[in-house]
Amino acid sequence: MIAKQTKADVHPIPARNAARTTTPRGMIPEVRQPDFDLADDVPKYWWDNDPAKTLLLAALSSSFPPGERFFIDSVRHYQKQITDPELKEAVRGFIGQEAHHSKEHKALNGYMQDRGINLDRLEREIQGLMNWMREHFSPERQLAHTVAVEHFTALLAEEFLLKYNALEEMDPRMAPIWAWHAIEESEHKAVAFDVYKTVGGSEFVRVTEMMAVSVMFPLFAGIHLVQLMKEDGQLFNVKSWLGGLNYMWGKPGVFRKLLPSYFKYYSPDFHPWNHDARDLVEKAKRKWLAPVMKKAS
User: Fold this and answer.
1) Is 54 helix (H, G, I), strand (E, B) or coil?
2) Helix (H, G, I), strand (E, B), or coil: what is residue 47?
3) In this structure, how many other beta carbons lie within 10 angstroms of the beta carbon of residue 177?
4) pLDDT of amino acid 7
């Protein structure tokens, strides 16, 4: 679905010479169809047996089906303007990966909903926000929103899930889902950015949209986490709250350690592949993807 045209959209983004990028040659996102085993005996709090940690990722998962569809639409809107063969192929890979992420997280959300974690309402709220942005944002700003969120998700994937021991702390049936998503977020982290630069997207729009996302992303995640903790009778679980806060902001402080990479986004010389995490991703592929891909073959 393409956004409804407003007065701001009468004229397309002016075409300029494609910006020079640092995306490695041949970096085409691979569309995979893994087979995950979500058995009935997976514990309710599947990350470190901890409510706050588990429900934080559950809240993020609720946003993925509507969010991924929005990302696909924002990139697809400019797909016909792409002439570089490799970027065209990367866009197809991006769309394929994001479509599978939406499908798998829809299934995961239903799985958690059946186990008493109410994600349906959260997903509807995010869908409402996406619909509002489709109605009120120009296609350029919609794509800038995608670029900004893709930077956030790549940071979370590379510097949080793949770098630290979060996956090791998860139930072994649940960890491959998050590993797979993290791997693919890293693989396609520059596709929307490269499209944005190629079609001549404004630096002002790119930077100001990241400012907005920097408020919206943690605000929605925080509100939804509090709601889930309250509904689950864990709102006053001080041990869980303090443990989660320490993990994210104290020691190891994974969110705190994301800040330098986050602020690099505001540089005029920023490119997602300035941070090359391919060694980390390849290690994760060998450990987490091999078993689930064997099942699917």
Assistant:
1) helix
2) strand
3) 24
4) 36
> With 0-12 CB in 10 A as exposed, 13-18 as middle and 19+ as buried, what is 194?
buried
Cβ count near 39 (within 10 Å): 7
Task: Please give the distance of CA 243 from its chain centroid, rounded to a whole number.
Answer: 24
Distance between CA 19 and CA 85 in Å, rounded? 15
Q: Which residue has the tokens 């941070």?
A: 275
CA of 100: how far to CAs of 33, 35, 45, 178, 272, in Å? Answer: 7, 12, 24, 13, 22
C-alpha to C-alpha distance for 224 and 83, rounded to whole angstroms: 41
What is the spatial distance between Cα 217 and Cα 60, in angstroms, rounded to a whole number?
A: 10
pLDDT of 4 over the 80 cut: no
Q: Which two tokens stand for residue 260?
A: 């330098």
- Tokens coding 95: 């769309």
The SS3 assignment for 45 reads coil
Q: Are 110 and 51 in contact (CB under 8 A)?
A: no
3-state SS track over 122-187: HHHHHHHHHHHHHHHCCHHHHHHHHHHHHHHHHHHHHHHHCCCCHHHHECCCCHHHHHHHHHHHHH
The whole model's pTM is what? 0.90
Half-sphere exposure of 21 (CA within 13 A, CB side): 24
Residues 90, 91, 94, 99: is their CA dihedral positive or negative? negative
- Convert the pLDDT of each residue in 188-199 to its tens digit: 999 999 999 999
Q: Give start and end residues of each alpha helix (H) in the chain.
A: 51-76, 85-114, 120-136, 139-156, 166-169, 175-187, 191-198, 203-231, 238-249, 259-263, 278-284, 290-296
